[in-house]
Amino acid sequence: MPSRQSVVQLRGAAPVVLPSLLLCDFGNLERDVRRLEDAGVRGLHLDVMDGHFVPNLTYGMPLVEAIRKLTDLPLDVHLMISEPARYAAQFCDAGADSLTIHIEAAPNPAPILQQIQDLGAAAGLAFNPDTPVEAIEPYLPLCDIVLVMSVMPGFGGQAFNAVAIEKLKYLSDRIGPEQSLEVDGGIAMSTIASCAEAGAHLFVVGSAIFGTPDYAVSVSQLEERARTAFTTTGR
Ligand code: DX5
Ligand code: ZN
């Protein structure tokens, strides 16, 4: 049964780094999940790609189900797929605690966001660097999470697109205390502080964790960098 609350309450623990399971060692998934748990992470970001909405193909419900069996951590599932409404219930059944859909895949996301919440999961709306913030503004009241993409979706290891900073600042003043701003793509020690200062609560990180020898050190350094930024901006 999805736990919307387990994701909504991450806002209160902000800044929260969410490792993105795209660059992890899928041949040793249990080992990587345990390393992340030992590193003290408070959730996992699962990058689902269908090879149609994005030019990459990752995994679907079976892997979400397998990860659900491995951990009690909140599963923040990022649906980079063309037909999110078709699969929302199946991903919730598989164990997703939040489902984030792309406005580029669902020009009228309202019914799907409502469907996700009705299924008991947190509803997220993502938008790409080349999509203006005005496109998602009408749907803010329906979102538990707003995911600002700082790379074009599809691959880890890309360079951070600073267009996300202005979008985070704009949205930071327009969301409520129960809603989370999440940023995804190119988040590293050199970029996380500016995202935190701009208003992000949740930080999706792939290569800046999985490309490093010690996940615990990487996660704690990133969260400390974001926390310092929170302090200097009085958040
Ligand atoms: C890109 C994914 C991101 C990506 C993050 O489509 O949504 O979550 O894996 O990886 P890094 O942190 O390496 O940009
Ligand atoms: Zn993602």
Question: What does this protein structure show overall?
Answer:
The protein is α/β, with parallel strands linked by helices and 235 residues long. 36% of the residues lie in helices and 18% in strands. It has helices spanning 4-8, 29-38, 61-70, 84-94, 110-118, 163-172, 192-198, 207-210, 215-232; strands spanning 16-21, 44-49, 75-80, 98-102, 122-127, 145-149, 180-184, 202-205. It has an eight-stranded parallel β-barrel, surrounded by four helices. Zinc ion is lined by residues 20, 45, 47, 78, 184, 204.
Briefly characterize the structure.
The protein is an alpha/beta fold and 235 residues long. It has helices spanning 4-8, 29-38, 61-70, 84-94, 110-118, 163-172, 192-198, 207-210, 215-232, and strands at residues 16-21, 44-49, 75-80, 98-102, 122-127, 145-149, 180-184, 202-205.
Features:
235 residues, alpha/beta, eight-stranded parallel beta barrel, 9 helices, 8 strands, globular, binds D-xylitol-5-phosphate, binds zinc ion
String of helices and strands: HEHEHEHEHEEHEHEHH
Radius of gyration: 16 Å
Secondary-structure class: alpha/beta
Main beta sheet: strand number and arrangement?
8 strands, parallel, barrel
Strands in their spatial order, largest beta sheet? 1-2-3-4-5-6-7-8
- Fraction of helical residues: 25-40%
| Helical stretch tally | 9
Total beta-strand segments: 8
Write out the distinct hetero groups bound to the structure: D-xylitol-5-phosphate, zinc ion
Percentage beta strand:
15-25%
